[in-house]
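> forwarded from #structure-qc
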């Protein structure tokens, strides 16, 4: 059945009954559709991972309560993505007066232009249909945002062209909030919005009126208001005015992935790893990349108030895959298999993702990032191969053996050297690698073993990636790379 194209057809379709989106408020519409999803046991917000037992139930309660809501969380916690997912709770299409700036309901027109049009043309008033994406309006709050951006302003050019008096409502250019009428209005980083603009938001929501250039305009708009904010800004600096905070029905705290599995799933979903050639991404490598973010979030040298975005492991994995892709292309190898050394090559995607404390500034972002990678490798190694006795490997290096694996070494070169070291390749089945796997897969796993032993300080490694015995002095293990770093730091101080 075709959709009504004018007011007369719309009225016949309604026949005294509620039409989708035409007779209920937007919050009631969202509530109704959410109840249908819950009854059908459908996924509420597909693609939002790690919030199934924490954030999503609170958002569901807020929608069922018909609340405006605010999401409080540090950067990179999918706040904006979650707000945009709310459009899935809107009807597939709603009728509006054709050409209306604020999606006016043809049966209950709000703006002056639509009221005059319906009075003039009656049942012949044209009707258009709007999908959910066009009913979502998002704005990033910045200190330079004006009331004209949010509410609207008088348009003198429109007044001159139409021959209207400046006091006429027809001269008004609507801002973002009126344009979200019958939809969702999202405001990111609410504390950064000037107080006087926040007053305008509260007033139009609570009283339904606002003054534009001294001219009072009644705009009882129907909108669901959603906000995001950093909890540090919201609670410590107190930039959200009290009446507006009181108007926000639900305050929901977001968080970073609570488990490594959640983090790996999110990064796997978001990272771009679809390359032209065949790509194999070992599970242990995914865990190492994700472990960097977990290590950074608990590191005291990194500002926890700023947070460590989930974009860090996403960018790091993409960069590591690209480095492996470059090496495979140069060496003529297939498939592409990233190694731990490729994660070290992704340092440019790590150093800009966290803010340093004073101690971190002394160490330096790059050196700290290297320490985080080493810590993540050590943890992943303990999980997968912690029960293996690698004492023959340690004894090989303590007996004077050495091994150098560069970032661009081919798989055959790495395997040729690893075969000289006892017990390195004998336990790779613990990370899902068999003897029949392609050489790049085996080489990557072998390098993971050496990096894991180095991370646990059982063997040493220099800056040029030469694996040697751990240097011992008075039974205290001295890490070669850390020792060299301390020497350079001492020179800088002197």
């Amino acid at each position: 059945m075709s959709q009504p194209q004018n007011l007369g057809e719309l009225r016949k379709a309604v026949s005294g009954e509620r039409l989708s989106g035409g007779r209920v408020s937007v919050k009631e519409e969202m509530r109704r559709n959410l109840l249908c999803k819950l009854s059908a046991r459908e996924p509420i917000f597909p693609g939002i991972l790690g919030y199934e037992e924490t954030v999503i139930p609170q958002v569901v309660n807020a929608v069922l309560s018909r609340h405006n809501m605010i999401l409080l969380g540090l950067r990179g916690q999918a706040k904006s993505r979650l707000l945009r997912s709310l459009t899935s709770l809107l009807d597939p299409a709603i009728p509006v007066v054709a050409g209306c700036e604020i999606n006016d309901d043809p049966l209950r027109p709000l703006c002056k232009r639509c009221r005059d049009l319906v009075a003039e043309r009656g049942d012949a008033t044209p009707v258009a249909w709007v999908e959910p994406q066009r009913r979502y309006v998002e704005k990033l709050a910045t200190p330079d945002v004006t009331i004209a951006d949010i509410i609207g302003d008088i348009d003198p050019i429109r007044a001159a062209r139409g021959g209207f008096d400046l006091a006429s409502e027809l001269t008004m250019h609507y801002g973002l909030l009126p344009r979200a009428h019958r939809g969702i209005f999202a405001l990111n980083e609410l504390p950064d919005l000037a107080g006087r603009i926040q007053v305008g938001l509260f007033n139009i929501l609570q009283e339904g009126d606002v003054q534009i250039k001294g001219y009072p305009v009644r705009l009882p708009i129907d909108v669901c208001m959603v906000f995001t904010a950093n909890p540090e800004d919201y609670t410590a600096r107190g930039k959200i005015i009290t009446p507006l905070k009181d108007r926000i029905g639900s305050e929901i705290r977001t968080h970073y992935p609570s488990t490594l599995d959640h983090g790996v799933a999110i990064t796997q979903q978001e990272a771009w790893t679809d390359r032209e050639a065949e790509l194999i991404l070992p599970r242990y490598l995914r865990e190492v990349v994700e472990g960097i973010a977990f290590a950074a979030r608990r590191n005291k040298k990194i500002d926890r108030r700023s947070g460590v975005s989930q974009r860090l492991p996403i960018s790091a994995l993409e960069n590591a895959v690209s480095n492996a892709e470059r090496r495979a292309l140069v060496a003529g190898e297939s498939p592409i298999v990233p190694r731990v050394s490729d994660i070290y090559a992704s340092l440019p995607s790590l150093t800009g993702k966290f803010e340093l404390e004073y101690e971190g500034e002394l160490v330096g972002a790059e050196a700290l990032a290297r320490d985080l990678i080493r810590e993540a490798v050590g943890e992943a190694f303990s999980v997968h191969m912690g029960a293996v006795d690698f004492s023959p490997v340690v004894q090989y290096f303590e007996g004077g053996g050495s091994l150098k694996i560069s970032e661009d070494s081919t798989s055959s070169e790495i395997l040729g050297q690893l075969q000289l070291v006892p017990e390195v390749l004998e336990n790779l089945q613990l990370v899902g690698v068999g003897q029949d796997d392609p050489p790049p897969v085996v080489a990557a796993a072998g390098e993971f073993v050496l990096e894991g032993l180095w991370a646990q300080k059982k063997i040493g490694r220099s800056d040029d990636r030469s694996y040697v015995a751990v240097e011992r002095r008075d039974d205290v293990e001295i890490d070669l790379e850390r020792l060299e770093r301390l020497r350079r730091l001492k020179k800088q101080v002197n």
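QC bot note: The chain has a mean pLDDT of 87. The chain has two domains: 7-253, 260-493.
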